[in-house]
Specification:
The chain has 392 residues and is of the alpha/beta class. The chain has 2 domains: 41-94 and 127-220, no CATH class; 237-388, no CATH class. It contains 13 helices and 6 strands. The chain has helices spanning 3-18, 24-39, 43-65, 71-93, 104-124, 130-166, 171-201, 205-218, 243-252, 256-266, 276-290, 331-348, 363-379; strands at 237-239, 296-302, 311-317, 321-326, 354-358, 384-388. The protein has a 6-stranded mixed β-sheet with strand order 1-6-5-4-3-2, sandwiched between helices. Strand 5 (354-358), helix 13 and strand 6 form a beta-alpha-beta unit. Helix 1 packs across helix 12, helix 3 (43-65) packs across helix 6 and helix 12 (331-348) runs parallel beside helix 13. The longest helix has 37 residues, at 130-166.
Amino acid sequence: MKENEITNDVEMTSETISGKKKSFWTKFFDKFDDIDRFLYGKRLKFFVWGTLLVLIIAPLLDELFGVSKDKITFYSTFLFFLFILALFISWISTWRDDEGNFTRKRMLFQIKMYFQSSSDFVKENKGKTINEYLYSFSLFLVIGSVCWKALQNVSVLIRKPIEALFGGRFEILRSFENITKHYYWIVLIIGILILAYLYYTDKNILKIIKKDFVSLLFNWRKNIKVGVIKTDNIGFVINAKNEQHVNSIIQNNQSELFKDLITSLQNWNPKNCYYEYEFQITLKKYLDKILPDALIEREKPVGSKEEFNRGRADIVIDDTILIELKRDPSAGAIQRAKGQIGQYAEIWKNKGPVILLLCNYDYEHAKASFTPVMTDLNKLDKNALTIVAKPK
């Protein structure tokens, strides 16, 4: 298969996905989806920095330079409002399916994802010490109260033009502003007192505080290059439960991150999983434990503005390794998986390997189905690999 043939297959797959000409609302949400791609993994950091800008930095600059009518504070608050609005609309956009439509199936999928994530969060936090619970609670109070206070500025920014245009008093926003003005500091003081108590009872808490705040505000990670995948004579469709296959990957590749991932998949045995999102959540949770120093992201937006280059990768590790999970071994699903992995290989280029991770697949069936496309992609320097991780 030649490169232009693979490209044509990718574009044809895209046309099948995109279907009819896009409506105005589809284009509208696509624009905010682009914003979400930029903000992914940085939302909380930007929100905290925006809060500091609105509450502390901008007022100080107005005072320092004698700016009339606190214009710096006004414009920074306006930008903060646009940021919040973009977050809200882009969040709504994530509820669409691959065709850009709001469907019952996609909404149910998202609800299940939120429910499962919340359930996992509760389970993961069981067994913590009292001090660990207090620390998490104090951070929530401190950061939450400051952000809550910053929203007062946003409320004023929204309320004043509305009251000027329509007259009267916007009582709901006025009540909100009174609450944030008079009561936020109570929550803030409680959070600080808890942190002070923890500091005097456990001196190591200061190191944890520094680490968490530095990670939140300045967490710029250095990408780790994995390099080109090399195998012996086993090809580019491997069985994660086969010792020979795993050893071949480990011996022929230098990246410790990649080798740790392959080894971890050898021991990954998800149970009670049927839907794709269940495998996805289980794998994310498992990799968080196995690769604690790596940044594991789920449902990460990838691709440029071009229509056929849109998508959300199931798992991305350190912005280098892209993993797409599939569980349906039917002929139609296999064909779609081929087109999707071709798209991701084109998008990802030299960033790192693109891995098609097959759950509940028979290895021989997977080998026969995916070897040709994987071989062709690697001949074209598209770093792609298929891994069969069938639960025992």
